[in-house]
């Protein structure tokens, strides 16, 4: 599928919010080009490890990282791990760039367009984990086809995750949680190792919380946290 075909049914909505301040615009112009992946270019000969400026023990992908609270926490938590973050919303990308430590940029790469471009570009079995946290739920039935969890994208996840790799999903929208459970449990490549009936109410280990989660609690919604294992 071409990038133009993918963009016509992109899984995200608007690209910009409030106008950037001068310092934010400068940050975006100077930092992002140094860290941005180009899925139109050849992959390094040594695969995903060659994308980073230092040796890494494994690679994690976060799709739609928002303001970056979770991604920045995981970067700090795992100093030998490489991270790829995808976020098409300009204001969120700028906020993340303002929070990352210069020393960590060596093992972080970013992409500011449709995550499918990156999923189709990365090599087989190159990721330890994929995080999809509070994605746009596209609540209207006519828009459900734009939900990121789909059979096609689960096929992509299965190709990219190592055996035993994890796909983590969080949402406060019940219909999207149920949708995701049904989609993933129907896919032959994944197991859902829920330890007890309420396991999906427990945040992931080391969970820092996010502003989307805080909003859900304020508005009376209870988030769900789903973790699936690549067979």
From TrEMBL:
Keyword Methyltransferase: yes
Enzyme Commission no: 2.1.1.33
Pathway: tRNA modification; N(7)-methylguanine-tRNA biosynthesis
Residue intervals passing through the bilayer: none
SUPFAM superfamilies, sorted: S-adenosyl-L-methionine-dependent methyltransferases
GO CC terms in record: tRNA methyltransferase complex
Keywords in alphabetical order: Methyltransferase, S-adenosyl-L-methionine, Transferase, tRNA processing
Binding residues annotated for substrate, in chain numbering: 140, 172, 210-213
GO molecular function terms noted in the UniProt entry: tRNA (guanine(46)-N7)-methyltransferase activity
Primary enzyme class: transferase
Residues that bind S-adenosyl-L-methionine: 62, 87, 114, 136
Catalyses which reaction(s): guanosine(46) in tRNA + S-adenosyl-L-methionine = N(7)-methylguanosine(46) in tRNA + S-adenosyl-L-homocysteine
InterPro entries: SAM-dependent_MTases_sf (IPR029063), tRNA_(Gua-N-7)_MeTrfase_Trmb (IPR003358), tRNA_methyltr_TrmB_bact (IPR055361)
Keyword Methyltransferase: yes
Pfam family, one: Methyltransf_4
Family indicated by similarity: Belongs to the class I-like SAM-binding methyltransferase superfamily. TrmB family.
Function: Catalyzes the formation of N(7)-methylguanine at position 46 (m7G46) in tRNA.
HAMAP family membership: tRNA_methyltr_TrmB
Protein's name according to its UniProt entry: tRNA (guanine-N(7)-)-methyltransferase
Organism annotation: Pararhizobium mangrovi
């Amino acid at each position: 599928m071409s990038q133009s075909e993918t963009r016509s049914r992109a899984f995200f909505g608007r690209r910009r919010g409030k106008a950037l301040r001068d310092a934010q615009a400068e940050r975006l112009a100077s930092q992002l080009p140094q860290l941005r992946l180009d899925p139109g270019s050849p992959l390094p000969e040594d695969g995903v490890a060659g994308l980073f400026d230092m040796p890494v023990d494994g690679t994690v992908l976060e799709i739609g990282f928002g303001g970056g609270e979770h991604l920045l926490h995981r970067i700090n938590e795992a100093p030998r791990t490489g991270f790829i973050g995808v976020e098409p919303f300009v204001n969120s990308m700028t906020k993340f760039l303002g929070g990352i430590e210069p020393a960590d940029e060596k093992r972080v790469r970013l992409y500011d367009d449709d995550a499918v471009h990156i999923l189709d570009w990365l090599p087989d079995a190159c990721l330890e984990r994929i995080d999809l946290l509070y994605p746009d739920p596209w609540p209207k039935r006519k828009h459900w086809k734009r939900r990121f969890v789909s059979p096609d994208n689960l096929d992509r996840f299965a190709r990219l995750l190592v055996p035993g790799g994890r796909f983590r999903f969080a949402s406060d929208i019940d219909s999207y949680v149920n949708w995701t459970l049904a989609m993933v449990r129907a896919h032959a490549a994944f197991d859902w190792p829920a330890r007890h009936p309420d396991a999906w109410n427990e945040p992931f280990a080391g969970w820092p919380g996010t502003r989307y989660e805080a909003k859900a609690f304020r508005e009376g919604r209870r988030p769900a946290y789903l973790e699936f294992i690549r067979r």
